[in-house]
């Protein structure tokens, strides 16, 4: 089974299509601040996504999908999760 089939995330979208796959789910509220440049890119991505899919995502959906993708692609973080939330190479404390 490919990564796309198991995670629902694409490594590449069809030509001209967004890579992020948005699924309507229940969210937990999180208040954060991001750099102005990042927010500008977020708004441009929203516009791109809407033009490419004819569906308007909201900021929460895109931030959630982008974080999920980052977490899945971070091999050290995946190792950390597989190791029960301990840094790889660290012995478990008894």
């Amino acid at each position: 089974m490919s990564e796309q089939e198991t995670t629902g995330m694409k490594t590449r979208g069809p030509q001209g299509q967004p890579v992020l796959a948005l699924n309507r789910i229940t969210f937990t509220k999180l208040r954060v601040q991001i750099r102005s440049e990042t927010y500008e890119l977020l708004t441009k991505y929203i516009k791109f996504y809407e033009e490419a899919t004819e569906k308007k995502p909201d900021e929460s959906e895109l931030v959630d999908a982008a974080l999920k993708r980052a977490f899945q692609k971070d091999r050290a973080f995946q190792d950390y999760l597989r190791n029960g939330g301990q840094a790889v190479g660290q012995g478990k404390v008894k």
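The radius of gyration is 16 Å. The chain has four helices and no strands.
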